[in-house]
């Protein structure tokens, strides 16, 4: 198949959508498909990376809002050229921003079927919109309608978790939809007893002896890292350190908060961890922590679980799908530093249970194998292409049948 993948972010960005798009594109190439990826960038020079043809679209940086944000301009002819030269069999979009609208319009004009994966939730934009807290209900409605107005035009929709699909259904999406995990490369992320934990921690400025609770990901407001900082302030235990690995728009704000809470020696901001170091870095930690309240799955949590770590996650959105309370970790009340501190202390006192919790994490992450994700998307692409090629009446009947099967499976 010739597959055109499009989204607003790609390598070298390390946000969840970018990581998934890279894993998907390169995984499909390994499985024998031709893949082209379009995304906004400062320059528009075509090139290849790991077998994937990259077609960046010239854009302006929105660094004043977020350092990974770009706004494409005058992209219609560029989109047309990519369709002319690549001639995709199917298109897979990953958001509803301007470039996606252009790609979907061109696909519709040429009768190329389109699948869309939604990674979006209003919480990912609200922190960057002045006054958003004042008119949040109205803003949420506007942002969701913006997303739905494009995704209602698609042939099939996926989201990373059952919780994310449920939200789309509640918002009125009628297009056939299915939960497909973003997946984790279990060959790359796995427990590794050979890792020099002391050296890896020292490399990133972490205490080499204390218990290490680790967060890895974007350091942005919607990740609610502030909850973990306040929890550390309440915990008042010198044998526990919190490592925060990553970059983002809220970095300086959170560093200042850590200073005000007198956490200088108990919280370490490591900066961005090199991608090739990430499996070893996760293997040097004791517990993975995630406080985000709008996670449609959390690739970072899956990668930590694949390395055999117990997890401490917020009881919000899709994160409860990854935890069995007391078995592979704990869920704490989202937005509640006191509850997070309580479970941090409990985990610290249950050191003897960590190996069993780690094994439970490994069992829990197996269904999220990247290989399964790739297989599922291959099947969905083929089914969507087959349905789109049928006469209108037969296609509609096929979609109704698929919807019924999906509803039964979700129940």
Keywords:
411 residues, alpha/beta, nine-stranded mixed β-sheet, six-stranded parallel β-sheet
Descriptive report:
The chain is 41% helix and 18% strand. It is an alpha/beta fold. Strands 1, 2, 3, 4, 5, 6, 7, 8 and 9 form a nine-stranded mixed β-sheet that branches. The model is unreliable at 406-411 (pLDDT under 50).
Give the secondary structure arrangement, pairings included.
Layout: E1 2-6, H1 16-30, E2 34-41, E3 47-49, E4 52-61, E5 70-72, H2 76-86, E6 90-93, H3 98-109, E7 114-117, H4 136-151, E8 156-159, H5 162-170, E9 177-179, H6 197-203, E10 211-216, H7 225-235, E11 240-245, H8 251-260, E12 267-271, H9 278-283, E13 287-290, H10 299-306, E14 311-314, E15 329-332, H11 337-349, H12 354-365, H13 370-389, H14 392-410
Parallel strand pairs: 1-2, 1-6, 2-4, 6-7, 7-8, 8-9, 10-11, 10-13, 11-12, 13-14, 14-15
Antiparallel strand pairs: 3-4, 4-5
Helix pairs in contact: 1-13, 2-3, 7-11, 10-12
